[in-house]
Amino acid sequence: MEKLFDTDKRVKLGVWGLGRGGNLANYVKIMNVDIVAGCDIHPHMRENFAKAVPEAFVTADEDEFLAQDFDAVLIATYFEDHAKHTIKALNAGKHVMCEVTAFYTPAEGVALVEAVEKSGKVYNLLENYPFTRQNMYIRKLYQEGFFGEFMYAEASYLHECRSLCYAYNVSGGLPVEPGWHVHSWRSYLNFHYYNTHSLGPLMNITGLRPVQVSALPCDVMLPGFLGKKKGGICPAMVKMSNGGLLRNLMGEGTGDRHRELCLWGTKASVENNDFAMHMRLGACGAGMRLKMAPKWENMSSVAEKTGHCGGDFWELYYFIREILTGEKSYWDIYNASDVTLAGIMAVRSQQKGGLLVDIPDFRIKEERDKYRNDHGTCIPDFHPEHIFPEDHDPAITGNFTKVMTRLYPLYSRSGLPMLHMALDGMKIYDEIADNNGRILVIAKVGQLIRELPEIADACRDAQKIADAYPESLPGKMLYGVLSTLDLDKIYDIEGTRKELYKWLENRKVEA
Ligand SMILES: NC(=O)c1ccc[n+]([C@@H]2O[C@H](COP(=O)([O-])OP(=O)(O)OC[C@H]3O[C@@H](n4cnc5c(N)ncnc54)[C@H](O)[C@@H]3O)[C@@H](O)[C@H]2O)c1
Which residue ranges have their beta carbon within 6 Å of ligand 1? Predict the structure, then answer.
């Protein structure tokens, strides 16, 4: 294996928050790093981590964790706690790499910037999307002047994670317990806050900072979410520091887009998405269009094996490199503040019907002073532990998160997503372009025949909870979900299965 650093010095690391944090810990093992401690309040996460890193000290107590002897901490706790936990870790004398985003309110941001400055420790935001092969290549060309000046970009991070309101992101999708609670930030966070995977790459490629944002509210949401602040589809127009514009699109809809970036410069443009990358050359509208297959310049053999198309490798590598060699990483506290504030200010713009809002620069003390006591207006529209009336019957409500994870299982492989794929796939079957598509639909119809009784059961259980608490947030949400379904067809298991078999008999896929 390639030697990653020109030194034998090693970094002792603690991991705080063992879901995403536990996954990332697997990758640092190849980088002059010894993982010595882990901390999580959830027993299942601690057990998983102890199996993966048996030599590490594991605890649920954050003070006991921070008292251990290690140099740096990886923070991947709840979204709203990042600033609080980062400041606590800096005060305990640790370098910090923290998951997105850096802070939740402007006042926390001011406190965080000043804590990092005072500590003299390395701080990096773990924003990984700039470090895919494609984005690193676009950055290299941009920095060489290939694209000319930045004019406009469209970037998207659409990720429908409905199931994560009700389950933890672990294999099998562990439902939140007790069943009448829902997951904290995942169930109510307005998606504008989670803007870094789409704005982050553009900032890193161009070196520009976001200066203003406007976000019109979209009032239509997918069924299956509690509350209204989650935001559904969240587009924002962001003005960058050179006067160019970005349409930044986040949210939860039908049709995920994880890595979309189309960038127009004054000399060339590029279209990159989850499937392919094309360049337009000629410094004109009708330029030559070329399909691209970019490569990393180095360390591709290790990067390729990590998550998020290698981005997980590079974000960790740059942090460890900064500790070991002093070479600066892009995601210092100032760039981290820029990207985080763009999200916070987009929420404000959305609350004001799309008004243009300035994004302050926390490098400047006078700017920070204006936001020192700004604790924001980001109050969730419900408490995740109080979604049913106070006198609810746990025998009924305790089934709520289990029901939701049966209706919307992790990764959409069964439940209602599968039902829609099968029934809607049948409707458009004759116009599907190729056999691969037709085979996918046939497989889904076969799965629906097998799993229809389970879907019917889950719908009945959902109906029971809704009927018991019709005026509650979950009751209204469940009625909304059930109203989108043809329940007669779902409950008539034998009749529907007969129809599905008959449809299958009439399909012949050409070889
Ligand atoms: N960059 C990426 O691609 C990416 C992907 C997934 C998640 N994330 C980020 O990582 C963070 C964690 O996400 P997740 O997917 O693991 O979901 P999560 O929010 O459920 O995980 C948080 C974990 O921290 C634990 N925790 C919370 N408070 C704690 C405390 N005070 N002490 C100890 N443990 C505590 C929880 O039990 C849980 O296991 C989130 O902020 C999210 O934004 C980033």
Answer: 16-20, 39-42, 45, 62, 76-79, 81, 99-100, 126, 128, 168-169, 308
